[in-house]
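User: Is it possible to get a 3D structure for a protein together with its bound compound? The compound here is flavin-adenine dinucleotide. I've pasted both below.
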Amino acid sequence: PFDVLVIGGGPAGASAAIYAARKGIRTGIVAERFGGQILDTLTIENFISVKETEGPKLAKALEEHVKEYPVDIMNLQRAKHLEKKDGMIEVELENGAVLKSKTVIVATGARWRNINVPGEQEFKNKGVAYCPHCDGPLFAGKDVAVIGGGNSGVEAAIDLAGIVNHVTLLEFNDHLKADEILQERLNKLPNVTVITNAATKEITGTDKVNGLTYVDRATGEEKHIELAGVFVQIGLVPNTEWLRGTLELNQIGEIIVDKKGATSIPGVFAAGDCTDSPYNQIIISMGSGAIAALSAFDYLIRN
Ligand code: FAD
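Assistant: Yes, that's possible. Here is the predicted structure of the complex:
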């Protein structure tokens, strides 16, 4: 059996595995796709001390760093169930294998909800973006749209308004769902236009995004806006469906953790975007992976 078994091979999982292995304990890592979300990321400019890198390059560096240590890497494997039995934690994989470990660190990350209109997949990283903290500065001085009028959409619009030339916020319903205080703040900004009842039909472009077509749901009329970028802000979904009924999750499915990364099952820790941490960033995921590993080690020496 393992001392520490990490589920997930993104920034959080890789960091947890390295911190655990450096304690000289038996460490394993199971990942559906080693690298995680950064594999889908083009430019990264906020990974502090690295001025600029690209996602796949950082993913490769993560893997190489993990391979410096005797970590048992099980890539292309998906965990489907976790339970505590006789003091050990058992993790069942989709291929039927059951792995046993004294502690587990869940770092299965999250995924942005897609809008699923033509152009979204085609122009990902070519004008279609999901993270204003990450990609906002790439659109400095240009016109962008934000799709989604919930808290994350309105926060993104406020954030982007300070960087870009103009922001159009599109909401499908007839009103925004964001907190009143955010809406008040948004309405005071001179370079933001809010369009409600807007059903996005297509993100248009040639080699990169050049606009967006939407249907005005009140009139049925089709309209086109010229843009350099589209931020899709209709929700970030944690990859925790497989833990429902096992670990305590919050309303939106995030694993509830304390300051030490501990979950509702003793010996099971969690880190990164799959937890209820307030911000989802590479540097934050790596930090929380380190916390979870150190907490797992602390748990092992006490139990
Ligand atoms: P993830 O990266 O989501 O990794 C999760 C891991 O778990 C993956 O290996 C996945 O395959 C695996 N997994 C999931 N389910 C299972 C399962 N059941 N069994 C086994 N394995 C499983 N952040 C920045 O700081 N700067 C940026 O510039 C930036 N740009 C971004 C651009 C895009 C397009 C996206 C999508 C995100 C961006 N982010 C950026 C956010 C950043 O990528 C995430 O915050 C970070 O990757 C989270 O790390 P994580 O390890 O928690 O999760």
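The chain has a mean pLDDT of 97. The first strand starts at residue 2 and ends at 7.
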